Amino acid sequence: MSTSPARSTWSSRWAFILVTIGSSVGLGNIWKFPYMAGSQGGSAFVLVYLLCVLLVGLPLLMAEIMIGRRGRGNPVTAMLNTAEETGNSAWWCVLGWVGMLGALLILSFYSVVSGWIMDYLYQALTGLQVETAENARQNFDTLLASPWRLGLWHTLFLAMTVGVIARGVVAGIEVANKILMPALFLILILLTLWGWWAGDMHTAWHFMFDFKAEVLTPSVILAAVGHAFFSLSLGMGAIMAYGSYLDRNSSIANTSLWVAMAGTLVGILAGLAIFSLTFRYGLAPSEGPGLILQALPLAFAHMPGGQVFASLFFLLVLFAAWTSAISLVEPFVAWLTERMGIHRYAAAWGTGLIVWLLGVGVCLSFNLWSAYKLFDLDLFGVLDFLTSRIMMPLSGMAIAIYAGWKMGLPLVREEMRLEAPMFSLWFWVLRYIVPTGIVLVFCHVLMPEMSK
Ligand code: TRP
């Protein structure tokens, strides 16, 4: 099979850990996890989530890295190479395709949402003023109503993302993550301390950590599995592509454990920082845009030094989103350069153009095109549903089956290089628990009332 002769390799194991954490830590951790945890069981939810990460997320993360490293190529090539090596059908490469295309679909709306964050960063730097909850809501609605404003930030964000990719794996992706991720952690710690000092950390702590097992319903548990999936960037070939640049000697298991832990830690710290402020100013906790773009700005407006805090906060979210977006473009760009022989520069900007067009559609779905619906969902909703609810679980399932049942024990053992009991445990979980977990989530998605 064709792989380019001189493939890039991350400069160290830590570089790989950092870029993978960069992919994993994104909007999901910062604007979804804290509220899910707080409202759906507190520390009981955090424990369930950690269990989901350990039983479904981590084993799959390891499998994706393994396939990428063994296959030495973009998701399609990696699947073809490993399928050939293990005597499996070349059809398994469809999995690579689903991942690569799914990643681009995700990016088209991820970029628009990241654009909102940039708009708010700009507002924060130039003095964001919202006095009342009504103001805050209007401010957000005005943004959504303006295709030009949405489009401008979407364009800028995508250009930033593609610009990094165009520079290459080490000079682009690795360097960007080496700057952005430490900065992200630094800002996060600073904001948590500030929240502790200026906010109501006590209530925030209780909101996120009180053990409320009675709130845990099957549907909450399934939501936790789904979130473990999204937040670890699984099933879309992103991790496979990153894994393909990993050197032969690094331990996949160790590395994955770091990534899983870091993502959860970021979610918890972000939650404490955010909720200590929202509670201090008597605002209701919520999630998503309502939390980050409406409740928080209101808190910022009332706190001393709010403008500085707000600017740092939106910078934090932007860095998290940026490093995640980068990992969504890499699989396809790698395919274009390796299989099609297209120069990396052209491949990156060409891919950017395709995603940009789709993203423009997403921008319009909030205003001019808001009347066009499919199953009661606008374009944004359709893309989100299709990718995170259908493509990700299906392709995650296929990866688990491929690595667990098809690749064969000798090769998998050779690639993982885990001690005996740990290896057997991982392999067993990958073969039985992961597929079961995914099937349950999938049923839950298709028949929501079933699991209530
Ligand atoms: N993990 C990111 C987040 O939590 C989103 C993301 C980045 C992603 N790359 C991915 C999701 C690949 C699925 C597949 O925001």
Number of domains: 1
Separation of termini? 48 Å
> Rounded to an integer, what's the Rg over CA atoms?
21 Å
**What ligand molecules are bound, each kind once?**
tryptophan
What CATH calls the topology is: Hydantoin permease
Largest sheet: none
CATH class: Mainly Alpha
Count of DSSP H/I helices: 18
Q: Strand percentage, roughly?
A: under 5%
How are the SSEs placed, and which strands pair?
Layout: H1 13-24, H2 27-39, H3 43-71, H4 75-85, H5 93-125, H6 133-145, H7 147-166, H8 169-198, H9 201-209, H10 218-231, H11 238-243, H12 252-280, H13 288-302, H14 306-339, H15 344-365, H16 379-406, H17 409-416, H18 420-446
Helix pairs in contact: 1-8, 1-12, 1-14, 2-10, 2-12, 3-4, 3-10, 3-12, 3-16, 3-18, 4-5, 5-7, 5-14, 5-15, 5-16, 6-13, 7-8, 7-14, 7-15, 8-12, 8-14, 9-12, 10-18, 12-13, 13-14, 14-15, 16-18
The chain binds tryptophan.
Tryptophan (TRP) is lined by residues 23-24, 26-29, 103, 106, 230-231, 233, 236, 238, 324, 327-328.
